[in-house]
């Protein structure tokens, strides 16, 4: 753009001493200014269109969450879990508009919390346009959707409304301010360059900011509520309460996979940016493509590792476990997707699969019940992804994505020292602490006020019937004389004997 600027005084010596030289110079410079303005307009339009498209992809992940949740619960609770996913988006939209965006990105502010743009006042500005708000809102409701999976099949509807608004309007925005805002104390893009350990936290698309926040909130909610009825028998042994539709789980997983290409590559926010190298074909558009590749490789590797790992552990090829492994790989690579080599993404996905399987085994030992494995998947794999970035971030990529500070620390295993890894560990500890001190009192208060968990009678009958006026599907028991010409589903009650997780022992 600067190459198109000119001044009439610069052109006069080239035009000679003709009587019209001054007028000709002014005319040429005005034409250059007009072209430059059009190019600026085109750049902003292209960048905003790219960000809007990315926001649409991330929002489409809500449909993926809805399908995944629906397939992972029993049929008698399908309508309830679908409604909570709608609620996450709707309640989150209002709370993020009124408070959340301001707390997260309301600059200028202090290092802890934003304080401008409440209700999008003075919007758009030189800092942000509406597309940026929409993109960040889609991230906020993703965090709330993660939590809803952990407490599924036993939580009162009013509790969903309260926690979802609180999470998207306050808890999540504070964390995103710390690590993503230009004023945040831990941000790698801090405007004054006073960076944590000289590096700041590199959590590019939110393994910590989004996935750990949602996963840890779900962890505490599920712990305070306790396991579902029938999840563990009287001797404490695990009883599998499998979801009713593997088809919906697979559909939801593919929709989430599709949406992740807005989640990770979209976090660049702009696409029309050159890195100023001699390779004119290489710029931010290339980094965006590389980020899509690392995302794909991490998820694919985690899926295959889970497939063979579970085959060795339980003796079956289980599609639901493979889908969860796939998502665990995506959650892990989200932090470092823009600053690691493709081969490192394979390492990330491989270890993420074992992290997920390990946390699932630990959850079973501790009698922790999470119908969607959300805390293990998003919390556990998200934490691994934050650490992974501190180990494998490449110097050249870090300087491209976070320019303006030569000598910035990078991955420990790539020769960059331990400062970045130290910053990443701080992020994990701070997120765990912040979500704990905010969400535990909320869930505890709701539980004490009898607003958290439904009654045992309602839980056994299913919330679709007792709370939402009917079932999502028309079905009946095998021994009932029903003349309904509808799709039939068989009710299989759990037995008192221990059942391995890979066996179907489901109540629908």
Automatic annotation (TrEMBL):
Pfam families: Ammonium_transp. Keywords: Ammonia transport, Membrane, Transmembrane, Transmembrane helix, Transport. It is a multi-pass membrane protein. GO terms for molecular function: ammonium channel activity. It comes from the Eukaryota. InterPro entries: Ammonium/urea_transptr (IPR029020), Ammonium_transpt (IPR001905), Ammonium_transpt_CS (IPR018047), NH4_transpt_AmtB-like_dom (IPR024041). PROSITE patterns: AMMONIUM_TRANSP (PS01219). Residues 50-473 form the Ammonium transporter AmtB-like domain. The chain crosses the membrane at residues 49-73, 94-113, 133-151, 158-180, 200-224, 245-263, 343-363, 421-446. It is found in: Cell membrane; Membrane. GO terms for cellular component: plasma membrane. One of its GO terms (biological process) is ammonium homeostasis. NCBIfam families: amt (TIGR00836). Belongs to the ammonia transporter channel (TC 1.A.11.2) family. This is Ammonium transporter.
């Amino acid at each position: 753009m600067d190459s198109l600027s000119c001044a009439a005084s610069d052109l006069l010596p080239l035009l000679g001493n003709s009587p019209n030289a001054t007028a000709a110079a002014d005319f040429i410079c005005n034409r250059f200014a007009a072209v430059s303005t059009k190019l600026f307009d085109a750049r902003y339009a292209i960048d905003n269109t790219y960000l809007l498209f990315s926001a649409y992809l991330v929002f489409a992940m809500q449909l993926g969450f809805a399908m995944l949740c629906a397939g992972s619960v029993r049929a008698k609770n399908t309508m309830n879990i679908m409604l909570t996913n709608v609620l996450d988006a709707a309640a989150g939209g209002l709370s993020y508009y009124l408070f959340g965006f301001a707390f997260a990105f309301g600059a200028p502010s202090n290092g802890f919390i934003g304080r401008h743009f409440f209700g999008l006042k003075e919007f758009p500005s030189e800092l942000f346009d509406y597309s940026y708000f929409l993109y960040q809102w889609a991230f906020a409701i993703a965090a709330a959707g993660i939590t809803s999976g952990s407490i599924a099949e036993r939580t009162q509807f009013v509790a969903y409304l309260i926690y979802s608004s609180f999470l998207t309007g306050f808890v999540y925005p504070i964390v995103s301010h710390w690590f993503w805002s230009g004023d945040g104390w831990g941000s790698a893009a801090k405007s004054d360059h006073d960076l944590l350990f000289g590096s700041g936290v590199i959590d590019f698309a939110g393994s910590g900011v989004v996935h750990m926040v949602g996963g840890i909130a779900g962890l505490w909610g599920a712990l305070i509520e306790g396991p579902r009825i029938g999840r563990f028998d009287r001797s404490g042994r695990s009883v599998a309460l499998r979801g009713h539709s593997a088809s919906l789980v697979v559909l939801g997983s593919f929709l989430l996979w599709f949406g992740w290409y807005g989640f990770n590559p979209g976090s660049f926010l702009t696409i029309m940016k050159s890195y100023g190298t001699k390779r004119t074909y290489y710029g931010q558009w290339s980094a965006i493509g590389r980020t899509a590749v690392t995302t794909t490789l991490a998820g694919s590797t985690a899926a295959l590792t889970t497939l063979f790992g579970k085959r060795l552990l339980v003796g079956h090829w289980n599609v639901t476990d493979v889908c969860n492994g796939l998502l665990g790989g995506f959650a892990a690579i989200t932090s470092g997707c823009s600053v690691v080599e493709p081969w490192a993404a394979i390492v990330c996905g491989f270890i993420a699969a074992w992290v997920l399987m390990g946390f699932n085994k630990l959850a079973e030992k501790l009698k922790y019940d999470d119908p969607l494995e959300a805390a293990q998947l998003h919390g556990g794999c998200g934490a691994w992804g934050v650490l992974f970035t501190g180990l494998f971030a490449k110097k050249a990529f870090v300087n491209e994505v976070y320019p303006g500070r030569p000598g910035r620390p990078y991955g420990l295993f790539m020769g960059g020292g331990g400062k970045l890894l130290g910053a990443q560990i701080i992020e994990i500890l701070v997120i765990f602490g912040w979500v704990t001190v905010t969400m535990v009192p909320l869930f505890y208060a709701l539980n004490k006020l009898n607003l958290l968990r439904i009654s045992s009678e309602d839980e056994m009958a299913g919330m679709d019937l007792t709370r939402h006026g009917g079932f999502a599907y028309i079905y009946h028991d095998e021994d009932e004389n029903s003349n309904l010409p509808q799709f039939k589903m068989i009710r299989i009650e759990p037995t008192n004997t221990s059942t391995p997780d890979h066996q179907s022992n489901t109540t629908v």
